[in-house]
Amino acid sequence: MLSAQVVIQVQFYDVDPMHVVWHGNYARYLEQARCALLDCIGYNYRQMGESGFAWPIVDLRIKYVRPVRFGQEIQVTATLAEFENRLRIDYRIFDRASGEVLTKATTVQVAVRLDTGEMLLESPPALTGRLREIA
Questions:
Q1: pLDDT by residue (tens digit) across 39-72?
Q2: CB atoms within 10 A of CB 66
Q3: Domain 3-134 has what CATH class?
Q4: What letter would DSSP give residue 129?
C-alpha cells in the first residue's frame, strides 16, 4: 500500500513535566503524516472540500509502546490500509536513530457529503479514482 513519512523533532511545548510527549500531542504528529500521505494521493483537505466531501475522523486508536521525549527525532509513517468504504490509515512512530517502534496508531475517516451532511457507505470516485490512477 501507499505510505508517506515525516520527520519531527520533539519540541519543549509538546512535553509534560517529565519531558515525555503529552498524550494529546500524538494526534498532531499523526495529522502531519496523514497530510503527507494525502498529498501523495493528490486528495488532501482542500481537494476533499472541492470534491464536495468532508472526511471526519470517526475512530482513533493509539498504542503507546515507548515514551517519546523532548529533543528526540522521530519518524512518523502513515500507510493507507483501506479506501473502498472508508479511509483507514495505519501509523508507526519510530525513533529515527534506532528505528525502534515507539507508537502504533490507526485512524478511520468516512466520506460525508458537504451539501447534505449524509455519510456515504462507500468512498466516492473523487478518492477511489485517484488511487486507481496511482496503482
A1: 999 999 999 999 999 999 999 999 999 999 999 9
A2: 11
A3: alpha beta
A4: H
Looking at the chain, the number of H-run helices and the number of E-run strands are 3, 7
Q: What are the boundaries of each domain within the chain? A: 3-134
Whether the CB-CB separation of 40 and 4 falls below 8 Å is answered with: yes
Instruction: Report CA Rg, the chain.
Output: 16
Query: How many residues are present in the chain?
Result: 135
Give SS3 for 69: strand
Q: Classify 1 as helix, strand or coil.
A: coil
Count CB-CB contacts under 10 A for residue 29: 21
Gap between the Cα atoms of 131 and 128, Å rounded? 5
Cα(20)–Cα(114) distance, integer angstroms? 39
* Residue 26 exposed, middle or buried by CB count within 10 Å (0-12, 13-18, 19+): buried
Supply the pTM of this predicted model.
0.95
CB distance 3 to 80 below 8 Å? yes
